[in-house]
UniProtKB/TrEMBL annotation:
EC number of the protein: 4.99.1.9
Main location as per UniProt: cytoplasm
Described purpose of this protein according to its UniProt entry: Involved in coproporphyrin-dependent heme b biosynthesis. Catalyzes the insertion of ferrous iron into coproporphyrin III to form Fe-coproporphyrin III.
Protein known as: Coproporphyrin III ferrochelatase
PANTHER family: FERROCHELATASE, FERROCHELATASE, MITOCHONDRIAL
Pathway terms, separated by semicolons: Porphyrin-containing compound metabolism; protoheme biosynthesis
InterPro entries linked: Ferrochelatase, Ferrochelatase_C, Ferrochelatase_N
Organism: Arthrobacter russicus
NCBIfam families cross-referenced by the UniProt entry: hemH, PRK00035.2-1
Record-level Gene Ontology MF annotations: ferrochelatase activity
Superkingdom per UniProt: Bacteria
Binding site for Fe-coproporphyrin III: S71, Y140
Tagged with keyword Flavoprotein: no
Keywords linked to the UniProt accession: Cytoplasm, Heme biosynthesis, Iron, Lyase, Metal-binding, Porphyrin biosynthesis
């Protein structure tokens, strides 16, 4: 099943794919439970084959139970879908927005099948993940690739995805606004003399996954910070700080670690970082959930519940900045990212607020490797599925 997709999908500089005539957008997301009975089946879906201990699942189930078994993520994606539809309509762009999830209904394979049955043939995916790592990039590409293979739609339905958008102004600007407002609030709370620190928070991942993130098998160690995942977050954080207050103190911290204790994950954890800041005389923190697109469970539990409690215990003033959510600039930015890839309404300019971007439309070989074994993926230079034109080659 090895095919040369580059012949049919001209890839120019930095993995850029030539614009195409898409006939639908797929908003692809994580999915979440919608009631107490969904919690355990959802957690099983998420962790299938991922080596997460039962104790961790038990603990995480309590986060969902505390919210009635309902994750906020599905409602947030319905709102984002509606906002994208409104923005497309306002620009006169006639592309329907489909919605599918990795871990909960509506599931991606069913959505692709329905899309095909409805007559769609070329789909551009927008994921709710901004950075490069297995969970945010390749896992989506695999899930789309597997869905095509298992349904027999490979070769009949073309599926691509937009570039990772961690440094697109549509993603970064809402954080700039939020951080400026948060900093003002926390500074007012601690007074003139009180030291304030900005904590950019993202999901911890195994260091092995971090090292493989965004990397090419040809240039495995091209990032000074050791990994594209860390480098992208540091660059996006720096872009925010530069525009809010270049003199502010800040750092990148991690949250939501799972996995077995002997497996190294990215550190420091946000709570440990807050302990250390408090010991060093810091009086207030602004927490920026830079790794996340909406205020889902990882944000409302790990930050608004746990980190906030830690701040109270340490007597730190605390403000949590909003995620992009359905901020108008974010919604418009996603539509701009779609227009970069479309023939009609094409936008030639590909803005990027850091030196790392604009990121690749087509991932390089081995990017965000899956150490548990290779699967068919879409949207990679080493991709085996997803292109109709290539199927005849
Ligand atoms: C990088 C990253 C993002 C950000 C990028 C993105 O958004 O894609 C993210 C988002 C999310 N993670 C989420 C939920 C969970 N993640 C888990 C487990 C894991 N996440 C990981 C990484 C990430 N996760 C990893 C390396 C694991 C270990 C298992 C594995 O190697 O795959 C588990 C299992 C229990 C646990 O271990 O905590 C749950 C329940 C939800 C939904 C929230 C809601 O329901 O509102 C969202 C948006
Ligand atoms: Fe996660």
């Amino acid at each position: 099943m090895t095919r040369d997709l580059t012949a049919q999908n001209p890839i120019t500089e930095r993995g850029r794919m030539a614009p195409k005539e898409y006939d639908a957008i797929l908003l692809a997301s994580f999915g979440g439970p919608e009631g107490q009975d969904d919690v355990i089946p959802f957690l099983r879906n998420v962790t299938r084959g991922r080596g997460i201990p039962d104790e961790r699942l038990e603990e995480v189930s309590h986060h969902y139970r505390a919210f009635g078994g309902i994750s906020p993520i599905n409602e947030q994606n319905r709102a984002l879908k509606a906002a994208l539809e409104a923005e497309l309509a306002a620009r006169g762009i006639e592309l329907p927005v489909l919605w599918g999830n990795r871990n909960w209904d509506p599931y991606i394979p069913q959505v692709l099948q329905d899309a095909y049955d409805a007559g769609h043939r070329r789909i551009l995916t927008v994921t709710t993940s901004a950075y490069s790592c297995y969970s945010s990039c390749r896992q989506y590409r695999e899930d789309l690739g597997m869905a095509l293979v298992e349904s027999g739609l490979d070769g009949k339905l073309e599926v691509d995805k937009i570039r990772q958008y961690f440094d697109h102004p549509g993603f970064v600007e809402p954080f700039i606004e939020g951080t400026a407002a948060g900093l003002a609030k926390v500074r007012a709370a601690v007074g003139e003399a009180g030291k304030v620190h900005i904590l950019f928070a993202t999901h911890s991942i195994p260091t092995r996954d971090a090292d493989a993130a965004g990397a090419s098998v040809d240039e495995p160690r091209e990032f000074d910070e050791g990994s594209a995942y860390v480098a992208q977050h540091l660059a996006a954080a720096a872009a925010v700080v530069e525009r809010v207050d270049p003199a502010a103190d800040w750092s990148l911290v991690y949250q939501s670690r799972s996995g077995a204790p002997h497996v190294p994950w990215l550190e420091p954890d946000i709570s440990d970082a807050m302990e250390e800041l408090a010991e060093n005389g810091v009086r207030g923190v602004v927490v920026v959930p830079l790794g996340f697109v909406s205020d889902h469970m990882e944000v409302v539990w790990d930050l608004d519940t746990e980190a906030k409690e830690t701040a109270e215990r340490l007597e730190l003033a605390f403000d949590r900045v909003p995620t992009p959510g359905t901020h108008q600039k974010f919604v418009a930015g996603l539509v701009d990212l779609v227009c970069e890839r479309t023939v009609a309404n094409n936008i030639a300019d590909r803005p990027a607020m850091t030196g790392l971007g604009p990121w690749y439309d087509v991932c390089r070989p081995g990017c965000c490797a899956n150490f548990r074994g290779e699967k068919p993926t879409i949207a990679g230079a080493d991709t085996r599925v997803g292109s109709v034109a290539a199927a005849s080659a």
